[in-house]
What does this fold into?
Amino acid sequence: MLIFNKKALLQNHLEALKTAQSTIGFVPTMGALHEGHLSLMQRSLNENTITVISIFVNPTQFNNPEDLQKYPRTLEADAGKIKTLSDSIIIFAPEVDEMYDGNTISQHYNFDGLENQMEGAHRPGHFDGVGTIVKKLFDIVKPNNAYFGEKDFQQLQIVKKLVEKNNLPINIVGCPISREASGLAMSSRNARLSDTEKQEAAFIYKTLQEAKSKFSTSSIPQLKQFVEDAFASHPEFTTDYFEIAPEESLVPASIKENTKYRAFIAVFLGNVRLIDNISLN
It folds into this structure.
């Protein structure tokens, strides 16, 4: 298994590997890998001749310095998990200066308003950081296909918009959310939960499933009230937001129209912030 920490060395290696028939699949991550990440890599292995995964904790997408400091960095363990899938996966694990050339700031992006909703409203500058690092990584790896999980559905839509606005020849593949047996969406942040908190966190998906079952017979205000009441009876959670929005615009809705909707939620359990979403129709 090859691990690169320099852009030029990775690019030289990829150039040497590529043929007229080869395709590059790319899975960008911040490490602390779990089964959800591995499922993205497996999809890439199935669909491409070359698979690259990046492991980089990107400082510009953290608006909370403490969150950045606490984010797990487990490169050796991550490499071991990747090896169980395939020896041929190429790892790109650069240092911050390698990616930002000593100037660790974000570009400013206009994603047609997608960046202002939900996560964008609650985490100022977050999607500028996401756009900045994803564009940098795309320019380095030059993938044919890039794989993103639907747990970060807003991020997925923003990456699609980034590709569209920059006319990048990259196919963005959204992959289903991987869940624990309890229903809890897999996330690197789950490692910060105690065993008791992990059991409690299953309530998030349970509530989303109940909201989905009520969607055809309830108005959006009724559904929002149902979720608010459900979490009010579980004081171990602090709700950041619950919204129902069309998948395309992500603008929170108050009335239903003929379009595809998702429910989005962000909550704190202890000092760990967890997000999830579910398709409603």
About this structure: The chain has a mean pLDDT of 97. The chain has two domains: 3-175, 188-279. The first helix runs from residue 7 to 17.
